[in-house]
Amino acid sequence: MTCPRPIPSASDAPAARPLGNHEVAERLRELSARVALAGEPHRASAYRRAADTLDELDRPIAEIREREGRAGLEALPGIGAHIAAKIDELFETGRIGALERLRREVPVDVTGLLAIEGLGPKTLRRLWEELGVKTVDDLEAALANGRVRTLPGFGERREQRLRQSLLALRRGGRRFPHAEAMPIARRICEALARVGGVERC
Q1: pLDDT tens-digit readout, 176-201
Q2: CA distances (Å), origin 197, targets 101, 187, 188
Q3: CA angle (182 as vertex; 178, 183 as ends), nearest 5
Q4: Contacts by 103-108, CB closer than 8 A, 24 or more apart
Q5: Do domains 21-105 and 110-170 have the same CATH topology?
Q6: pTM of model > 0.90
Q7: How confident is the model at residue 72 (pLDDT cuts 50, 70, 90)?
Q8: Alpha carbons 34 and 111: distance in angstroms, whole number
Q9: Which of 63, 74, 127, 142 is the most exposed place for a label (fewest CB within 10 A)?
Q10: Phi-psi domain of 164 (left: phi exceeds 0; alpha: psi -120 through 50; beta: other)
Q11: Cα 89 to chain center, whole Å?
């Protein structure tokens, strides 16, 4: 007679990995881009500064939240009560309600499109509203059929620069925000400095 395998209890299941600093920062950056696209540059700047703070932290944000609670989050530079509440919501539910709403209201791939050099939220808003560009593929099509150059303030030269930037992205290039790149660079330098024979990094 074969005994049935025991059903694992909830306590047996592996605990979900807490969100890392970069993951939380990425959500705030997307929120910043979508808020900017919605025409609120000041709020967008606040979210972007908070994302930069998280990328430069030398401690996990999850640890700060667990040990110091909401007050610990609010004590971080650029993170007040409003943004701390968003971070708390993300840890509690795995989502940010305001970000989900903006994704529905502005169905544009802001992460993919803003990775293209020469595209900012204002330009992206115009491309979306006037040409219906929602994705990188949409932009590629609009560039191919010459619609981008018809927008006031664009022209053939700007269209060509966007085309070159898009080609670079397709080849695997990606822009990294300074605040995202510097912590990585610091960790690389710290690792290299520990290698025997390295005098300066």
Answers
A1: 555 556 667 777 877 787 888 888 88
A2: 54, 18, 16
A3: 130
A4: 103/34, 105/38, 106/34, 106/37, 106/38, 107/134, 108/37, 108/133, 108/134, 108/135
A5: yes
A6: no
A7: very high
A8: 9
A9: 63
A10: alpha
A11: 17
What's the rounded Cα separation, in Å, for the pair 55 and 119?
23
Q: Judge whether residue 125 has pLDDT over 60.
A: yes
Among 42-56, 103-117, 186-200, which is the least confidently predicted range?
186-200
109, 115, 122, 132: which is closest to 153 by C-alpha? 122
The larger pLDDT score, comparing residue 57 to residue 2, is at 57
Domain boundaries, the chain: 21-105, 110-170
Percent of the chain with pLDDT over 90: 49
Residues identified as active-site: 86
CATH code at 110-170: 1.10.150.20
Inter-residue contact 54 to 25 (CB < 8 Å)? yes
In this structure, whether the domain defined by 21-105 belongs to CATH 1.10.150.110 is answered with yes
| pLDDT on residue 8 | 44
DSSP assignment, residue 77? T
Q: Which amino acid is at 75?
A: A
